Amino acid sequence: MKKTTMTAVVKDTAAPGIVIKQVPIPKPKKDEVLVKVRYASVCGTDIGIYDWIPWAASHIKPPQIVGHEMVGEIIEINTKEKTNLQPGDLVSSETHIFCQNCYQCSIKNYHICENMKLFGIGRDGAFAEYATIPIRTTWKNDPRISVEAMSVQEPLGNAVNVVTKADVKDKKILIMGLGPTGLCAGMVAKAYGAAEVVGVNRREYRRDLAMKLGFDRAVAKIDEKEYGTFDAVLEMSGNRIGIEIALDAARIAGKIIAFGIPKENISFDWGKYMINKELSIDSVFGRMIWDTWKDTTELLISGNVDLTKIITHRFKLSEFEEAMKVMKSGECGKILLEP
Ligand SMILES: [Zn+2]
Ligand SMILES: [Zn+2]
What we know:
Elements: E1 5-11, E2 19-24, E3 32-41, H1 44-51, H2 54-59, E4 64-65, E5 69-78, E6 90-93, E7 96-97, H3 103-106, E8 117-118, E9 130-134, E10 138-140, H4 147-150, H5 153-166, E11 172-176, H6 180-191, E12 196-200, H7 204-212, E13 217-219, H8 224-227, E14 230-235, H9 240-249, E15 250-258, H10 270-276, E16 280-283, H11 291-302, E17 311-316, H12 320-329, E18 334-338
Parallel strand pairs: 11-12, 11-14, 12-13, 14-15, 15-16, 17-18
Antiparallel strand pairs: 1-2, 1-4, 3-5, 3-9, 3-18, 5-6, 6-10, 7-8
Helix pairs in contact: 5-6, 5-11
Bound molecules: zinc ion (2 copies).
The site of one zinc ion (ZN) has 9 residues, from α3.
């Protein structure tokens, strides 16, 4: 008998928590593919969804399958259009599902589409045995990349976009916050020729991991007397104190790239930092589609970035609660889930 249901991690009600249950295997709609998920990885965003923070409550309509970082094998393609995709291809999903019709899409800023939907947030995602993905946001992976690394390209892509905007070659770089994207940013900055990369995180586990990944230094606190100022600061923490430190640690006319999303409103001395100090602040929300994915592929194929080093834990999909515990402890790099 043909299998008609699958295991999935479902946000079932508008409240904290998650359920693991059997749901029908989805059918690909017009211009979508159906994939058999090989690996999915847990993102910081998934903690917010689990805890049902206000941001999650305003973006998710339960019941919905969560999870957006993934790799899977194409089982079925439902389209009449020409496509380079074939059954058997190993693909990942771009999280930002763009509309193709708005002004931002018309100037190829697909990642900040005005009508954007997020995979695993505004529609069913990948913490399941099967998932459907619109063809326009399906990325065909280069088979030279390890299958596990394929599942972690979405956060690596964020890091690639941040580091590209910071223009790091021969520069002294500070990274505030060593979550997986901050850790990836350090690897990418080194690969792109940064002179020095220093990471800041209060957790020893994360600092140790940063050193294993090739950071020059990883410290709990940054002191200007000891470290001087930095050409660019990558603000990956989204933490108020992290942001305050970033403003001071950037040199005069230095650069800050904002990536971490704060949970509170941030205020700072505009005159001191933006005028007198001539700081420039740039920001990143996701990956350039598909330029960042191409750069990410190059980094992985060249071996200049080894994503498998950042994968510290693996769980079965059915052990999602365990994975979430480890995720919340902060004593981890990237966590892979296997259906
Ligand atoms: Zn993510
Ligand atoms: Zn659009």
